[in-house]
């Protein structure tokens, strides 16, 4: 999938209320899950103990942290959209976050996103609300659904 490249904020504003291109698939590996466990200090066995998960988990595989799929929103958005004039982007917040389906090790995820709202922010910025759905390949239910709010500055 080709990344949507826009010259500036003026052209980006035209996307308000519209869907972005669907992103490419990203595989969630055991290494990613282990690294996330280290970063967050959440070492629950369902995430990091492969043998125990195969034996005791109802999923028979390790499960990624729900917050791992949520934390991928910035990367997944960056993979589908680039505003060339933007000098910096930062996370602002989240609303209405849900994790409808677990992400198992080696599942593939991709982003389906709509630019819900764009507002001016200070002198040189925008505040963007994104309606994000992180899809799981082969699943009827998404991994994560969230209203993601970010700031972008020229």
Describe what is shown at a glance.
The protein has 154 residues and is an alpha+beta fold.
Keywords:
Thiol Ester Dehydrase, Chain A; single chain; 5-stranded antiparallel sheet; 154 residues; elongated; two-stranded parallel ribbon; alpha+beta
Mean pLDDT: 96
3D shape: elongated
Q: Which homologous superfamily in CATH is the superfamily?
A: Hotdog Thioesterase
Q: Regarding quaternary structure, how should these chains be classified? A: single chain
Question: What would your notes on this structure say?
Answer:
With 154 residues, the chain is of the alpha+beta class. It has a single domain, classed as Hotdog Thioesterase (Thiol Ester Dehydrase, Chain A, Roll), CATH 3.10.129. It has six helices and seven strands, in the order E-H-E-H-H-H-H-H-E-E-E-E-E. The chain has helices at 9-13, 30-40, 45-48, 50-56, 66-71, 73-80; strands spanning 4-6, 26-27, 81-83, 88-98, 108-121, 125-136, 144-153. The protein has a five-stranded antiparallel sheet with strand order 2-5-6-7-4. A two-stranded parallel ribbon has the order 1-3. The chain is elongated and about 55 Å long. The relative contact order is 0.23. The model has no long low-confidence stretch (mean pLDDT 96).
Task: Give the helix/strand layout.
Layout: E1 4-6, H1 9-13, E2 26-27, H2 30-40, H3 45-48, H4 50-56, H5 66-71, H6 73-80, E3 81-83, E4 88-98, E5 108-121, E6 125-136, E7 144-153
